[in-house]
Specification:
The protein has helices spanning 36-46, 60-67, 85-93, 118-125, 194-202, 221-233; strands at 5-9, 30-31, 34-35, 51-56, 74-79, 102-106, 110-112, 132-138, 142-143, 151-153, 159-161, 170-178, 206-210, 214-216. It has 243 residues and is of the alpha/beta class.
């Protein structure tokens, strides 16, 4: 199935990236020669996505000014008076997607595909009976990440979140495909997508796909510096695609 619409979550404050985010929304911070959100949009355009919703709140005018200069894909804005978090932001934007599944991507995700496009692979792995498909990163492919992961995944791709004190095999990348119907009955407001994942997990309907490339945890200025250094060192590698 071809996934031809997407949403980029760009309304957050980026507290841990201060002081850089005091004057710039985090998705506009540059990595590998361009703002993080531009790399994401380039990858979406590459696989044929035509329409992208970007939610904004903190320093939203800067995102509008920057993104309105793009010729493609077509950008639609979902402006929030106050940040609605990941789940609430998606619910507010749902009318743009109709009944078809769509990508949801954090606006500060950085990855290196290594001659592939993980968004294309995610789209090709989507099955008509799926409700959610999350791109998962093995801990040894998560640069700068020092946590204990988020989920384990069985041979059928079914995800199970780790138990307290357990170390999981995968960390969630912030990249996914979701079906609009999973939000049916949810009231508009501020809430996290994790509440939706938890409900799907209980029914055995939360699926994952392993990222084949590298993913970079860009949470602080220190992480940003090390990520920029990595891309500078690898800029001459042919076929590298970053976001």
């Amino acid at each position: 199935m071809i996934i031809n619409k997407a949403m980029i979550l760009a309304a957050g404050r980026g507290e841990r990236m201060r002081p850089l985010t005091d004057t710039c929304p985090k998705p506009l911070i540059s990595v590998d020669g361009a703002p993080m959100i531009d790399h994401i949009l380039d990858h979406l355009e590459e696989i044929g996505v035509k329409d992208v919703v970007v939610n904004t709140s903190y320093l939203g005018d800067m995102l509008h000014e920057h993104l309105e200069k793009r010729a493609s894909p077509t950008i639609h804005f979902s402006d929030e008076d106050r940040p609605l978090e990941t789940g609430g932001g998606v619910v507010k934007a749902l009318p743009a997607f109709g009944e078809e599944p769509f990508f949801v991507i954090n606006g500060d995700v950085v990855w290196s595909d290594q001659k592939a496009n993980c968004l294309k692979e995610l789209s090709q792995s989507w099955k008509k009976d799926m409700q959610a498909l999350l791109l998962m990163v093995p801990l040894d492919k998560a640069r700068g990440y020092q946590g204990d992961g988020d989920y384990n995944m069985n041979s059928h791709g079914v995800l199970r979140q780790k138990e307290p004190g357990e170390k999981a095999t995968y960390v969630f990348s912030g990249i996914q495909i979701l079906r609009p119907s999973i939000f049916k009955g949810l009231e508009p407001g501020r809430f996290s997508l994790k509440a939706v994942y938890d409900g799907l997990e209980e029914k055995g309907e939360l699926y994952g796909l392993e990222l084949k490339g590298l993913w970079f945890h860009v949470g602080t200025p220190e992480h940003l510096a090390s990520t920029r250094e990595w891309f500078e060192q690898h800029k001459d590698q042919h076929g590298e695609k970053s976001a």
